[in-house]
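ESCALATION

Customer reports they have been waiting on this structure for their group meeting. Please prioritize. Original submission:
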Amino acid sequence: MAEATSPFVHEPVVRLGAFVGVFVLMALWETLAPRRPQAVDRRWRWPNNLGVVVVDTLAVRVLFPAGAVGMAMLAQAKGWGVLNVLQAPGWVAVPVSVLLLDLAIYAQHVAFHHVPVLWRLHRMHHADLEFDVTTGVRFHPVEITLSMLIKAAVVVALGAPPLAVLVFEVLLNATSMFNHGNVRLPVWMDRILRWLVVTPEMHRVHHSILRRETDSNFGFNLPWWARLFDTYRTQPEVGHLGMTIGIDRFRDPRELRLDRMLMQPLRGDGPDPRSAAAKGNRTHV
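Update from on-call: job pushed to the front of the queue and completed.
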């Protein structure tokens, strides 16, 4: 008898297909209806930002060949985790797992802002001088590795079903590209959508050079945690066209090179790049 094939054997194809589809859609949307003018050419930024994606993907595949879905399959087979112990039905386990995994990523994001050693990793994401779809995939490989460890631990402790983990990972990747998009949304549509998902108008505030704005709107996918934990900010103080994207520490466009981005965690801190010293907003770089 032929050996049964796991329904998740095509997980990499599903994730790659979703990534490419959403990326192309957002890139076209940004071209047709940009929200902000960009001073730094995409022909300079995009190859470097996408180069980070390649490095991240290789690092995760080498260090975690089974991925988070593989950990969920192992936990399911061994009966590990709260939901497996409780034998929760799929219609309960899947949505609960997606919800709690999103909460875990929110908490992780807050920690990466407030723990200095973690901020040195995460600041590469914030050091982009523009805000568009490629910013949503620009994360240091060490941060991605730590994030995968945290995610795997949560998956096992929770006993999240493999389907829930796959749905969550596809959603997280897609919404990260969506809410980093340099796209124009009608005001009425944004007002409705930000109750259901983190929108570009909501998340762009998080990339402000002002610390009080950077330390807000931490969600990537679901918007409810910001309101629940009092980190929600509706708009940037000087508006979306007047705000400055990035951090003080890395303003030179040469810092957008792939090699310099990867070395940023080893660079000296200097003044706190998100400090209140950055009181007056800068002109758009």
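Sent to customer with the following note: The radius of gyration is 19 Å.
Escalation resolved.
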